[in-house]
Write a structure and sequence with these properties.
Blueprint (H helix, E strand, L loop, with lengths): L10 E6 L8 E8 L8 E5 L6 H4 L2 H9 L2 E5 L20 H16 L4 H5 L2 E5 L1 H12 L6 E5 L7 H16 L2 H5 L6 H12 L20 E6 L8 H9 L4 E5 L6 H4 L1 H14 L1
Parallel strand pairs: 3-4, 3-5, 5-6, 6-7, 7-8
Antiparallel strand pairs: 1-2, 2-4
Helix pairs in contact: 2-11, 3-5
């Protein structure tokens, strides 16, 4: 495929007006391979502590291998997007709200029309993978495909344990300093994610009931050494979505795009090209 001259794409800001009880938001976003106007779009949905900057160059590499355009953005509370106010706690259905409201509003704001959405792909990691699944279930006739990397479809003890351990690292170790490189308001990012996952009410969160609505091609990927989840997550996806394909990565933890990118990229490229 033809390769474009590499450069760092500019980060833009989209203003989302207040709607149905949601406050107005400003979301930072970035186009990758913007010049490929005839190519399908891949939307990248980051993990629970992620942002545009935290993806680094992995989305660009995926887009290059597939010849696609890419869209990356920081969800509210992360990166340079509208921060979470200190006294605001994410609700139990916070991922549903991102899938059903915020992502569609962003697509509207930046002019991705119905025709483009019908062949759009969504790649999500961790919480972003869960949001990708919820979006695909809500819009079953308007998506080219989904790739969910280390997604959560219900809450496991191992997830809660790892997040509790992250609290200690954030308060007593160097995790806060590391994350501050990627978020304008680092406490907004960390405690928004940390507080809801450790909320006892969140233990009942479970999205398996909506998975059967997903009609588009779906690849679910999990590392055998994932400290935040087990193979039960993607096995549950397969049990509810007969056409789902699974990739289980050996010697890989929760972040395959950082820990085993070659295996991850190969699985993604093979899957997308098979469709």
């Amino acid at each position: 495929m033809d390769r474009l001259v590499q450069h760092t794409p500019a980060i833009s800001v989209a203003d989302l007006p207040a709607k149905d009880g949601r406050e107005s938001l400003r979301l930072e976003y970035q186009w990758l391979n913007a010049g490929r106007t005839d190519a399908p779009v891949i939307v990248f949905l980051h993990e629970g502590l992620g942002s545009i900057a935290m993806w680094k160059d992995w989305p660009q590499k995926v887009c290059e291998q597939l010849g696609f355009r890419g869209l990356v953005y920081s969800r509210p509370g992360y990166g340079g997007s509208t921060p979470r106010e200190a006294d605001v706690k994410w609700p139990v259905d916070f991922m549903h709200r991102q899938a059903y409201d915020v992502l569609p509003a962003l697509l509207d704001a930046i002019g991705i029309d119905d025709a483009e959405r019908a062949r759009m792909w969504v790649i999500g990691h961790s919480d972003g993978g869960s949001i990708a699944l919820l979006y695909a279930a809500a819009f079953p006739d308007a998506l080219g495909g989904v790739i969910a990397i280390a997604p959560h479809v219900f809450v496991e003890d191992v997830s809660v344990k790892a997040i509790a351990e992250a609290t200690v690292l954030y308060m007593q170790g160097d995790l806060r300093d590391k994350l501050s490189r990627y978020h304008t308001d680092v406490d907004s990012a960390f405690y928004g994610w940390n507080d809801i996952w450790l909320n006892p009410e969140f233990r009942q969160w479970d999205i398996t009931g909506v998975l059967s609505s997903i009609q588009c091609p779906l690849l679910a990927i999990q590392g055998h050494d994932d400290e935040y989840g087990t193979m039960a997550q993607i096995d549950a996806i397969a049990s509810h979505i007969p056409h789902a394909q699974l990739t289980k990565l050996s010697a890989c933890g929760h972040s395959p795009h950082r820990q085993c990118p070659a295996m991850l990229d190969a699985a993604i490229v093979a899957f997308v090209k098979s469709i």
